[in-house]
Write a structure and sequence with these properties.
This protein is mainly α. The protein has a domain at 25-32 and 39-98. Helix content is 62%, strand content 0%. It has helices at 3-7, 25-36, 48-58, 60-72, 78-97. The longest helix has 20 residues, at 78-97. It is elongated, with a radius of gyration of 19 Å. The termini are far apart.
């Protein structure tokens, strides 16, 4: 085995393997959000299904836009700001649909 072979990692070890259960862009976004906000709940508030239920009503594009706004802001509580913006958006949607 040459020095180069020993130091250089194998190509198969570097291949991307998607997480189990992540099927769409929305699922990927939710997984990233939960990781960013240190959410580990299996049930209830903070769980994957909790995020999915809200963000399906908001839509992927809007959720992604809100996430980008929160990341650019200088807030100490990004999770709280994210959920406040989601709530405001849902209130606006409800007002226009009535």
């Amino acid at each position: 085995m040459t020095e180069l072979e020993r130091v250089q990692p194998r190509a198969s070890a570097l291949q991307y393997k998607p997480k189990r259960g992540i099927h769409s862009q929305l699922h990927q976004l939710i997984d990233e959000l939960r990781t960013d906000y240190h959410e580990t709940a299996k049930k209830g508030v903070g769980s994957f299904s909790y995020y999915l239920g809200y963000l399906k009503r908001v839509g992927f594009q809007e959720a992604y836009r809100i996430r980008a706004e929160v990341r650019q802001s200088k807030t100490n509580t990004p999770k709280k700001l994210f959920w406040w913006r989601v709530g405001q958006l849902l209130k606006e949607k409800k007002k226009f649909s009535s």
